[in-house]
Design brief:
The protein is of the alpha/beta class and 264 residues long. The chain is built from ten helices and six strands; from the N terminus they run ααβααβααβαβααββα. It is 42% helix and 14% strand. It is globular and about 65 Å long.
């Protein structure tokens, strides 16, 4: 099936009746997005609805990432960006922020061997080098140890903001053209792209957001310019391969025109 060609979708309520294997098979019959972005929302609400502390929702959210990684590889997705910690998340209670920082360190250390075994390459994106020293060191080691992964590139958006990325890119671009101001008139999108956090990653094809919220929240604003958006009411800690496959099937039912009316 060619990209943009609608596939047989999942009717309302049908997805719950289909097995995970059937959903995977149906997803594999259509066009697979190269780059998926996931806004992992609902950790706090998941925990509070169960009488737990908010931080327990974040820990459960890490387990959801672990469940989804093999599913992404089965699908043949090449890049996946997880929105781990935004630049706006610093406004959260200090104790919660500290827990999240510790969780990043724990995840980077304890799951390193699993990433290597699965062939997953991990790259942090954002102003992550401004994070506490122990977080930076854990991420640096994870990057080095997983550099040869060739099954799936996982981008961890940590201390990330889409507007901040464009500001940082503009600063780096301006610095590179120092004493060559006249050449700035020829700068195009590809020139600008070279200064993004991870220019080797392709544009995002599909953005999935959990928990029923319907906004981008400053996530991959440049890269997701033409992405399809899929929103689900499922809270992130409850999200698993079945939900991922259903999102892919919904994506396959979209008709991607990229502004070209000739594709209608």
């Amino acid at each position: 099936m060619s990209a943009g060609e609608p596939s047989q979708g999942v009717a309302a309520g049908e997805g719950e009746a289909l097995s995970e294997d059937v959903l995977l098979e149906r997803a594999l019959s259509g066009s697979i997005p190269v780059h998926v972005g996931i806004v992992m929302d609902g950790n706090g609400r998941w925990a509070l609805s169960r009488g737990k502390k908010r931080y327990e929702g974040h820990r459960a959210g890490v387990e959801s990432i672990k469940r989804c990684l093999p599913a992404l590889i089965r699908l043949g997705v090449k890049f996946c960006t997880f929105y781990v910690f935004s630049t706006e998340n610093w406004k959260r209670p200090k104790q919660e922020v500290q827990f999240l920082m510790n969780l990043v360190v724990e995840y980077a250390k304890e799951d390193r061997s699993d990433f290597i075994k699965k062939g997953i390459r991990v790259t942090p994106v954002g102003r992550w080098r401004d994070l506490p020293r122990q977080v930076v060191q854990a991420l640096e080691r994870l990057v080095a140890d997983t550099a040869r992964g060739d099954k799936l590139s996982v981008l961890l958006a940590v201390n990330y903001g889409g507007r901040q990325e464009m500001v940082d890119a503009a600063k780096r671009l301006a610095a590179s053209y120092k004493d060559r101001e006249k050449e700035l008139a020829t700068v195009d999108e590809e020139d600008f792209r070279r200064f993004l956090y991870e220019p080797s990653a392709p544009d995002v094809d599909l953005v999935i957001r959990t928990s029923g919220e319907m906004r981008l929240s400053n996530f991959l604003l440049w890269e997701a310019a033409y992405a399809e958006l899929v929103f689900t009411d499922v809270l992130w800690p409850d999200f698993g391969p079945r939900d991922l496959y259903k999102a892919i099937i919904e994506y396959q039912g979209r008709h991607r025109r990229f502004g070209d009316v000739r594709r209608e």
